[in-house]
Backbone:
């Protein structure tokens, strides 16, 4: 079942109604049942794999808590985490080791494995106690809105929400958030994807235009696609009455690469900070700046390799870490310079986002290009010039791309709505006058009926989410 | 009073959302099938005069139906003095809703003939009576009820794979007029039920709503979602797929496998005989041609061979040979279309069907296919008049915009078409 489908809307609506009428103590059972039903529409076999991994972690955590303070706990924690890493690596490496093209990789395997690892580590570190009841824990691991591509929510922030009353007030916010996600995906990401796809198909045309288009538009496509997916996940959660952490915070307004990675895929980067960077940094703290550089590089390489075990992703990770290390090693010098030259701060705020966008755009070539040769071809073509600009542009906007230009103004509009959402939220004031409440409820209902009709009337459906494959 | 005011404001807000959605659909280029048809007491369905809207299933094309209910330019009913009038009958392949009007087979054919015989005193006029979805019985009824008013000199009927199966209700269950053979004579099937909404009043309302719908994307979306989307979702839930009428392809490729299929051929024979007789009585030449399934003119010989092997047959010729025999028996001239079209597609490595939003060589003729078909038909017409062929070098200068080198009949592949079909 795809997020962008009529079936999903019906599924979510039925689940939300069930969730509302369900007594508090049964809610986790309902969520567990619906989440596994959601998973089974994709693969019942992989749902069993998910259940086994969940059960293993549940019992391991209980045992860890019982052994807390004893040396056996450390061994058990290491064994549990290693098993999960091997489990994830097995499914990630499987396509490389097998020639079969019909390999089944568990949907959202990265996301639920990350949740399980952090849970085990937190219980081992004594940050939280092990969950005593299996059903709420399993419902947390398999929670269907977050199963596909996160956000990676910690169990400590999720489980208490299952027993909370008054979640109804977030339905409107959830519906609006989901609508924003639908718009990002179907209007911006899919249309930009047409341009980017065309560009990668015309890298041998002897013109710089395809390279320029691919270079500059892919980061926007990726952001609209992934943040759209996150909006739908968070919105679905809100409709059900659960709140999830944010995953993006206007990443392209960042003035440095370090800041960009604090704003991009925030739940993954914070997860890696807590469970990879910090432990590695602790191990290498005596190595000075080399230790810091190593920690950052390892962290960034893991983020890159999580996407896939390819040379392209290795280069992607190393390229990003180069800038992260450079920024980390020059923090004090830059601070001193800024103090001495107050104007430089303003210039940095102005030029920073442009610089960051270019670095991200160059790095993203290794993310998107099918091979390093293609990536090289793209950069080489930048020197080909724009002598055939008119005919190239004509080809770029010929069918099926002839309406794709709408993605750019739509992106600006949606970005403005997103800024408003971050500042003010989508919540209706509690004391809003009746005409306003009725207008908002009527409009949102009409909007969702129209979205459902659009999904029903769509011939080909939406393109798959880029991040759903990780 | 206050409640009324609140409701009015809320209704205004909903209306605003609907308007914004309409704008959004237009801005994002979302287009849905338009309504071009109306009920007809004789033909069961006909093109609605002056209807206009988009065809988007294959390609993306704005269509305007003329004031006479034809997918064609405007024509006068009375013949033009000194003009040879050619009436085309057929289904969606000939209606050519997927391509701009001037790229349809009818328009290209007229331009080709005009170029050939272009003179101040004698011209060619091609009238396109083809309607998407029409079957052989509807083509007979069109001939009888519409075509003769225009006094054509030549009537050209194009059959497609569904033409023969649609002659028997059991083989082709659809709400269309059927004929049956009674004592060797063709008579209307007593089981026919003309559509209920074919009164003038009902058609007026239908036209009003249809024209409104063709202008409002939201209404088109609602129609699309309810007519296609909901049945598809229901089929998914039931775990079934939309059924395809396997009879259509089977009957094109192989001899009839059932009494119903054999009856369909007999009725088709009867209809063609009646049309030929009708044409003779009007002093009009009657020509027949056949358009095969998409695999038949696939440019890849390998794909065609694979298909034939999978179906256990040697060639695609069964239906065409049988139709040719029927034509000969009734004194109908026959134009062999598929062979030259396949040859053209293979020689030029080009799909003559398929659009940017379909797979290559899928469905209807694209611009290249329409042009190639027009060239072949024009050649056949001219050949029968012992006039030089279009492939004759002396004529090629006159039809230069469609020629493809010194060899016969290859319309120059249009760049746009090439891009679209290769997409």
Residues:
């Amino acid at each position: 079942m795809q997020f962008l489908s009529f079936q999903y809307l019906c599924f979510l609506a039925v689940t939300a109604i069930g969730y509302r009428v369900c007594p508090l103590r049964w809610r986790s059972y309902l969520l567990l049942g619906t989440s596994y039903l959601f998973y089974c529409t994709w693969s019942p076999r992989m749902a069993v794999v998910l259940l086994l991994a969940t059960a293993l972690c549940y019992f391991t955590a209980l045992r860890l808590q019982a052994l807390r303070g004893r040396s056996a706990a450390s061994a058990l924690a290491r064994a549990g985490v290693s098993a999960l890493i091997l489990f994830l690596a097995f499914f990630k490496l499987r396509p490389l080791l097998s020639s079969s093209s019909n390999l089944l990789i568990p949907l959202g395997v990265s996301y639920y494995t990350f949740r399980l690892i952090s849970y085990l580590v937190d219980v081992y570190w004594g940050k939280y106690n092990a969950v005593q009841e299996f059903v709420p824990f399993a419902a947390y691991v398999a929670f269907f809105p977050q199963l596909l591509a996160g956000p990676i929510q910690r169990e400590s922030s999720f489980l208490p929400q299952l027993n909370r009353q008054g979640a109804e007030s977030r339905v409107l916010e959830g519906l609006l958030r989901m609508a924003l996600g639908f718009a990002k995906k179907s209007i911006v990401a899919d249309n930009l994807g047409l341009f980017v796809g065309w560009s990668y198909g015309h890298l041998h045309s002897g013109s710089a235009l395809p390279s320029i288009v691919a270079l500059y538009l892919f980061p926007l496509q990726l952001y609209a696609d992934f943040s759209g997916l996150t909006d739908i996940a968070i919105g679905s959660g809100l409709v059900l009455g659960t709140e999830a952490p944010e995953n993006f915070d206007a990443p392209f307004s960042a003035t440095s690469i370090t800041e960009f990675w604090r704003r991009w895929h925030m739940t993954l980067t914070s997860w890696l900070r807590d469970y990879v960077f910090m432990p590695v940094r602790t191990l290498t703290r005596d190595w000075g700046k080399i230790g810091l550089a190593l920690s950052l590089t390892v962290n960034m390489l893991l983020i890159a390799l999580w996407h896939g075990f390819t040379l392209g992703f290795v280069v992607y990770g190393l390229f990003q870490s180069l800038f992260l290390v450079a920024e980390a090693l020059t923090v004090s010098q830059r601070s001193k310079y800024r103090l001495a030259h107050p104007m430089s701060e303003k210039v940095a705020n102005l030029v920073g986002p442009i610089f960051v966008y270019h670095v991200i755009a160059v790095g993203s070539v290794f993310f998107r290009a099918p091979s390093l040769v293609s990536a090289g071809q793209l950069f080489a073509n930048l020197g080909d010039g724009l002598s055939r600009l008119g005919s190239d542009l004509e080809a770029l906007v010929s069918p099926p791309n002839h309406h794709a230009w709408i993605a750019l103004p739509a992106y600006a509009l949606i970005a403005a709505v997103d800024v408003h959402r971050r500042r003010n939220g989508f919540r209706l004031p509690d004391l809003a006058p009746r005409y306003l409440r009725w207008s908002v409820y009527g409009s949102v209902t009409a909007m969702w009926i129209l979205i459902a009709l659009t999904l029903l009337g769509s011939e080909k459906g939406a393109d798959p989410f880029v991040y759903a494959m990780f | 009073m206050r409640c009324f005011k609140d409701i009015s404001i809320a209704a205004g807000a909903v209306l605003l959302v609907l308007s914004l959605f309409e704008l959004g659909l237009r801005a994002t280029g979302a287009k849905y099938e338009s309504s071009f048809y109306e009920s007809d007491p004789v033909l069961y369905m006909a093109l609605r005069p002056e209807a206009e809207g988009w065809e988007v299933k294959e390609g993306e094309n704005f269509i305007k139906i003329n004031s006479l209910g034809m997918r064609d330019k405007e024509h006068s009913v009375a013949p033009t003095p000194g003009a040879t009038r050619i009436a085309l009958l057929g289904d969606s392949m000939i209606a050519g809703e997927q391509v701009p009007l001037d790229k349809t087979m009818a328009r290209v054919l007229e331009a080709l003939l005009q170029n050939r015989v272009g003179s101040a005193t004698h011209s060619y006029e091609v009238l396109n009576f083809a309607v998407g979805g029409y079957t052989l019985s509807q083509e007979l009824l069109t001939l009888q009820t519409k075509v003769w008013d225009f006094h054509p000199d030549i009537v050209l009927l194009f059959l497609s794979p569904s033409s023969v199966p649609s002659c028997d209700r059991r083989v082709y269950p659809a709400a269309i007029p059927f004929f049956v053979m009674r004592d060797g004579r063709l008579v209307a099937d007593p089981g026919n039920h003309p559509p209920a909404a074919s009164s003038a009043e009902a058609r007026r309302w239908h036209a009003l709503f249809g024209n409104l719908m063709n202008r409002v994307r939201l209404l088109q979306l609602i129609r699309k979602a309810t007519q296609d989307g909901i049945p598809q979702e229901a089929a998914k839930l039931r775990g079934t797929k939309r059924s395809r009428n396997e009879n259509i392809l089977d009957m094109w490729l192989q001899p009839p496998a059932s009494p119903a299929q054999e009856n369909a051929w007999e009725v088709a024979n009867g209809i063609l005989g009646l049309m030929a007789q009708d044409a003779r009585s009007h002093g009009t030449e009657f020509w027949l041609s056949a358009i095969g399934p998409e695999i038949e003119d696939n440019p890849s010989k390998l794909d065609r061979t694979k298909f034939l092997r999978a179906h256990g047959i040697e060639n695609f010729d069964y239906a065409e040979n049988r139709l040719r025999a029927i034509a000969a028996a009734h004194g109908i001239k026959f134009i062999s279309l598929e062979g030259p079209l396949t040859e053209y597609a293979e020689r030029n490595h080009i799909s003559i069907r398929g659009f940017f939003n379909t797979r290559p060589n899928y469905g209807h003729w694209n611009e290249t296919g329409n042009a190639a078909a027009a060239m072949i038909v024009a050649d056949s017409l001219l050949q029968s008049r012992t006039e030089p062929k279009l492939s004759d070098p002396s004529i090629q200068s006159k039809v230069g915009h469609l020629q493809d080198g010194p060899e016969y009949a290859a319309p120059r592949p249009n760049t746009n078409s090439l891009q679209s079909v290769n997409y």
Q: What stands out?
A: The longest strand of chain B covers residues 83-89. Chain B touches chain A at residues 5-7, 9-14, 16-18, 21, 24, 27-30, 32, 57, 59-60, 218, 221-222, 224-226, 228-230, 233, 236, 356-357, 416, 419-420, 423 (CB under 8 Å). Residues 180 and 189 of chain B are 5 Å apart (CA to CA). Residues 387-423 of chain B have pLDDT under 50 and may be disordered.
